[in-house]
Amino acid sequence: AFDIIIAAYAKHDADTLKPLLSTDVYARFSSTIQEREERGETMDTELVVLKPPGLERVKVQDSRAVIDVRFQSEQVNIVRDNTGAIIEGDRDHVDSVIDVWSFARDLSAENPNWALVATRSVEA
User: Fold this and answer.
1) Which residues contact 84 (CB under 8 A, 6 or more apart)?
2) What are residue 57's DSSP bridge partners?
């Protein structure tokens, strides 16, 4: 899910994001996408390396399960203005990114999918 969500976010692909995100996270992501689109900006993200994810925490309360997963990746992130000029990032610079993403699922539901319910960045 990590690389799918990262790619869809960069491509402004809200249709792909919607079933993968909770309502709150989707609202936050789509708001940022809309702001970028209003400014005429585009984003290119290249996932260079994704290290094996690490399980941070598992919590089950009643029928709701939440798992926190640590993702450590190397990424190239570029934001371009409406003329195609780079306004953020550098295609020759690889960022080391550590995020913890929380996924949740109602264990009593027939739907087997987990939704991204929170994200946070971690300093290296």
Assistant:
1) none
2) 68
pLDDT (0 to 100) of residue 124:
63
Whether residue 79 contacts residue 41, with contact meaning beta carbons closer than 8 Å, is answered with: yes
Pairing of strands 115-121, 86-88: unpaired
Give CA–CA dist 98/120, Å, rounded: 9
Beta bridge partners of 96: 74
| DSSP class of 109 | S
Q: What is the pTM of this model?
A: 0.89
Of the chain, the percentage scoring pLDDT greater than 70 comes to 99
pLDDT at res. 123: 81
Residue tagged 């300093």 (tokens) = 123
Which one-letter amino acid corresponds to residue 31? S
Closest CA to 98 of 62, 70, 61, 76: 70
Q: Which two tokens stand for residue 9?
A: 């976010």
